[in-house]
Design a protein that fits this description.
single chain; 298 residues; alpha+beta; seven-stranded mixed β-sheet; 11 helices; 7 strands
């Protein structure tokens, strides 16, 4: 059988003027493609995505230095490369360990053939979700019910979603109020909102190490700033002591905000997501137009 396939590909390669390929070469290509796919999915779903973008910027600077023969910069880059690799392994040890654990806990064959790209695409949220979030936060503020709500943006928070309990419910003010009601099983911790759904509750978030924050702020506010420092999420905090609503975004905390301010922040986030979608659609259309022109010229 193997000899038959080898003969087939050999003849096909000669006919199409392609390099000689055997069945073993095709299997190797498939294995490498699968490994690269899951590596990029893992990077996209963790903090490594932000790090990768930073590394690309550094590589561009090194490339410019090599182009203009900046020997000092090249020497520094060459001597710090091996140290940087070790540092990356140390920094992302928890994520790498979790990725290996997930690989060992799943059915390998079904995992390979379940390429669901839509699962890793953040969903947009609607105006109704914005209204329900604002309504729930200020109703909880009136009765001083503490709450911590993380609104996911481009970077998926699956590693923190896994620390909580799956909910997968449509965002409504009643659902949010019931989750954070005192003495209920799900009130402790944060909830993560992806698109129009609450995907998980009782999630544990990293605390910020910032010395700028006031000492009077509690764990909720520090967790809100902490998750925004390592992702592009927007986090809403309702204080249990004062009932005030605060927003954490981009590593900054906006304290005691009014409903209109919260609504504007959510709408601006929603608008950026829609603009990103429009840009992506425009790029695809331009590619299609380019292909049509190339075909017409031929």
């Amino acid at each position: 059988m193997k000899a038959t396939w080898d003969t087939f590909w050999e003849k096909a390669s000669i006919y199409m003027h392609l390099p000689k390929m055997t069945t073993t070469d095709l299997v190797e290509i498939a294995i490498i493609a699968i490994l690269l796919y899951y590596m990029f999915v893992w990077i996209r779903n963790t903090r490594a995505w932000m790090l990768l973008k930073g590394l690309l910027v550094i590589l561009i600077f090194v490339g410019v230095a090599a182009l203009f023969q900046m020997n000092t910069v090249i020497w520094i880059a060459r001597n710090t490369f091996s140290v940087a690799i070790i540092a990356l392994v140390v920094i992302f040890q928890p994520e790498m360990r979790k990725a290996l654990e997930n690989l060992g806990s799943k059915n390998f064959i079904s995992t390979i053939f379940s390429f669901d790209f839509s699962k890793n695409v953040p969903k947009k949220f609607s105006d109704r979700t914005v209204d329900e979030l604002v309504k729930a936060c200020y109703e909880m503020g009136k009765v001083k019910t503490g709450a911590l709500i993380v609104v996911e943006k481009d970077i998926l928070l699956t590693e923190y979603e896994g620390t909580g309990i799956a909910v997968d419910g449509i965002v409504t003010s009643q659902l949010l109020i019931n989750i954070f009601e005192k003495n209920t099983p799900l009130h402790d911790g944060a909830i993560i909102v992806r698109g129009d759904r609450v995907v998980a509750a009782t999630c544990y978030l990293p605390l910020t190490d910032s010395k700028v924050l006031s000492k009077e702020l509690g764990t909720r506010h520090r967790a809100a700033v902490g998750i925004c420092e390592i992702s592009d999420s927007l986090t809403i905090v309702v204080s249990e002591e004062t009932g005030h609503v605060s927003i954490a975004v981009g590593g900054e905390l906006y304290r005691s905000v009014q409903p209109d301010f919260l609504r504007r922040k959510l709408h601006s986030l929603q608008k950026r997501e829609q603009e990103a979608t429009k840009i992506e659609l425009l790029r695809r259309r331009l590619k299609d137009v380019k292909k049509d022109r190339e075909k017409a010229n031929k």
